[in-house]
Write a structure and sequence with these properties.
The structure holds 2 protein chains of 2 kinds. By secondary structure, chain A is mainly alpha-helical. Chain A contains 13 helices and no strands. Chain B contains 19 helices and 11 strands. Classes of the chains: A mainly alpha, B alpha/beta.
């Protein structure tokens, strides 16, 4: 069976290099799967120690659920806002004739390269209640409310990841063949028609990628959340990754962390699949 | 072209072989250095400056890593969890010592290996020495105290004096007898805050109410103002009953007399608020940070004075003891040299210089040293503060317990929970996890 798979991958001219490459691929998959195996093994061991009901009740602990819901809220908001804005900005670049501009691509990569703590320092300089430059504008207690803290996390995520997703949209637009664009220019009266009938269906093909990716980016925020809120909103704005990290590295409660991870997987997988189906059905019929 | 490329190839090979040889010789022909991880603080920087003296005296090379608190902690934790510690000596926060000792991450230190001049172990402040070097209380020694901390009251005389006078109170002094009670402190704080107009003027009190270690370090002092069980002062683990609920409600009242944003404040923000006179009083000012308040930049808000912290139902003050120990790791392969270094750093002559550079006293002689007192006058009542200090519970699960305490206290402060319910939730967790 492996031989068949290798032939399928590399064709009849399978040779030693192809075999090595396949072995490397298999190893990479194995290594990638290892954490999942470890999590499942830890959870199973813990079931033996404390019992399934105890483990489930730990996973459904109010702290876990609050942190999970915070992460899902931030992920959802980021997914909707970033996807919408990336599409709009991608189209705007097309309108002003900057599609495929290498300078814009280079600039877009900068925010992603900035470490999270820099965002923390900037946020501190802007909105810290005692010294922040915008302290007279930012409402008192902004960071100590759950809504304020989650909004700050979503805003920083947006600033960091939006430019690179605009590039993804832009690449998709610039991949429209020139003859299609020329034909469209002949067929349609306005640019709006070009966007509606050619560009938007094209962009719709990458909607699942854009939205799921930005959802996961928002969901997994951890450092940024801590840096921006200085834990000010306390536990009500705690993100799931941060809580799980503490479970493992501060409290050494591997059982709860493993149970929590499986719970996340159980919630995330259907959620992502639902997302994908919804968006795919919307984009059906794209040329 | 071919000849040139083969020459370049040979040169690269020679350089690579030389580099390998150098690496090999440097790792095998010289003795390995002592690796030490310290939390970034004036005391650590002072130790880093004088490490050359130890190298000369004992012929052991020292490598010191100065790391921010969180980074140091997570690095050490990860190394311990994976049995890959490459540090011989680590600087450990008092609240983490029980967990490390319980899990076997620390090595036993024998003070008799000391080869220097008289170590004068009886000069160490006993409570501090026990808290920062041993686990459990009076148990195995894993190192030596290095940086101590407790709390005192700080206040702006010009703001507090007129309000206190109106309320018929004398200003608090530097002895237990002349200290205010917590009720008096709260009354003055509320009066100062009530006098604010158009969101201008100082708040009565400062807080460090950021969720987690900060708020609990502060609240524990308030808690023991309400705890009637005297033995609990030495275990740090009282019953979380009606007294604890009253302490939560009281802290909530203090918070209502302070800035709303104090819920985001840690040590630094609280110190800044006192420095800029945004707040007029701090009942739990860190002695460790008092030197910052004496800097010229803080003098614009008028005279800043230190006093004995407020007293509670027991008639005693309850400042919260903190600090760091220099501890030996269990995985150190250079235990004798590492022990020697720890003892050297805590020795009378070396540690005195560290205190002069901004460290905090661990020895009685340091708190009585005229030169040190001339530079840091507030240290004159330090030994009496240490004597009345209370501890946070010395339990391996402290961090988790602190999380439970913090969650419940913050919920009470935000009116999301009733204090009695919060106290009973804490007690239930304590019964299930700390007393089994």
């Amino acid at each position: 069976m492996i031989g068949l798979a290798v032939r399928r991958l590399f064709g009849p001219s399978v040779n030693i290099f192809a075999a090595v490459a396949t072995a490397g691929l298999a190893l990479a998959v194995l290594i990638a799967a290892l954490p999942v195996v470890l999590i499942v093994a830890t959870a199973v061991t813990e079931v033996g120690k404390v019992g399934l009901s105890e483990l489930v009740s730990r996973a459904l602990d109010s702290r876990n659920l609050l942190a999970l819901s915070n992460s899902i809220i931030v992920g959802g908001v980021v997914a909707i806002v970033v996807t919408t804005m990336a599409i709009m900005l991608g189209l705007a670049l097309h309108q002003i004739g900057l599609t495929g501009d290498p300078v814009i691509y280079m600039l877009a990569a900068i925010p992603v390269m900035i470490p999270d703590y820099v965002f923390g320092v900037v946020a501190y300089a802007l909105i810290e209640p005692q010294f922040g430059m915008l302290r007279s504008i930012v409402p008192t207690g902004f960071l100590i409310s759950r809504e304020g803290a989650l909004a700050a996390i979503a805003a920083a995520t947006l600033f960091k990841w939006l430019p690179i997703l605009v590039v993804v949209v832009d690449v998709q637009i610039s991949a429209v063949p020139l003859h299609v664009k020329r034909q469209a220019a002949l067929d349609f009266r306005s640019r709006r028609d070009l966007i509606r009938t050619v560009l938007l269906p094209r962009i719709a093909q990458i909607l699942p990628l854009l939205s799921i990716f930005s959802f996961l980016v928002g969901f997994r925020q951890y450092e940024l959340a801590k840096e921006l809120t200085a834990s000010g909103a306390g536990f009500r704005a705690e993100m799931w990754t941060s809580w799980n990290y503490r479970n493992i590295y501060e409290f050494f409660d591997y059982g709860s962390a493993a149970a929590g991870s499986l719970l996340t997987l159980a919630i995330l997988l259907p959620l992502v699949e639902l997302f994908r189906r919804l968006i795919s059905s919307d984009s059906r019929g794209a040329p | 072209m071919g000849r040139w490329s083969s020459r370049i190839g040979i040169i690269i090979l020679v350089i690579a072989a030389g580099a390998l040889l150098w690496k090999f010789s440097s790792t095998t022909l010289t003795s390995p250095p002592l690796r030490i991880a310290l939390f970034q603080a004036p005391a650590s920087e002072a130790l880093n400056k004088v490490k050359g003296e130890f190298e000369q005296k004992f012929g052991v090379k020292i490598e010191i890593e100065l790391l921010p608190y969180a980074e140091l902690q997570s690095k050490i934790e990860q190394q311990f969890r994976t049995n890959s510690s490459n540090y011989d000596v680590i600087m450990v926060d008092c609240i983490l010592i029980p967990a490390y000792a319980f899990r076997g991450n620390l090595g036993k230190l024998d003070p008799s290996v000391w080869k220097g001049s008289d170590f004068r172990i009886d000069d160490l402040m006993p409570a501090l020495d026990d808290y920062l070097s041993r686990y459990p209380k009076g148990g195995e020694r894993f190192g030596m105290p290095f940086m101590s901390n407790t709390q005192m009251m700080a206040f702006r005389v010009d703001i507090v004096a007129p309000v206190a006078q109106k309320l018929g109170l004398k200003l608090p002094g530097q002895t237990a007898e002349s200290a205010w009670t917590w009720d008096q402190y709260l009354k003055v704080a509320e009066a100062i805050t009530a006098a604010r107009q158009n969101d201008k003027g100082p708040y009565g009190t400062s807080l460090q109410a950021r969720a987690g270690a900060w708020i609990i370090y502060e609240w524990y002092s308030v808690l023991f103002a309400f705890v009637r069980d005297t033995p609990a002062r030495t275990t740090g683990l009282p019953m979380f009953n009606a007294d604890a609920a009253a302490a939560m409600d009281f802290y909530k009242r203090i918070y209502s007399a302070g800035p709303k944003d104090a819920l985001t404040w840690g040590h630094e923000e609280e110190t800044s608020a006192m420095c800029s006179a945004l707040t007029a009083m701090d009942a739990t000012s860190n002695v460790e940070l008092a030197a910052q308040l004496l800097k010229p930049g803080c003098s614009q808000g008028g005279e800043l004075r230190f006093a004995y912290p407020p007293t509670g139902v027991s008639g005693m003050a309850s400042p919260d003891m903190g600090g760091y120990g220099l501890l030996l790791t269990a995985q150190s392969k250079l235990k004798d040299a590492a022990s020697q270094f720890i003892l050297w750093a805590a020795s009378p002559e070396v540690h005195r210089r560290i205190v002069m550079e901004g460290g905090s006293p661990i020895r009685k002689s340091e708190a009585a040293d005229s030169e040190i007192l001339a530079k840091y006058p507030y240290l004159k009542f330090y030994p009496s503060l240490i004597d009345t200090s209370i501890y946070r519970a010395r339990v391996p699960k402290w961090l988790e317990f602190q999380d439970i305490l913090s969650r419940n206290l913050v919920a009470v402060m935000r009116n999301e929970m009733d204090s009695k319910g919060a106290a009973s939730e804490i007690q239930a967790w304590s019964d299930n996890n700390l007393k089994k």
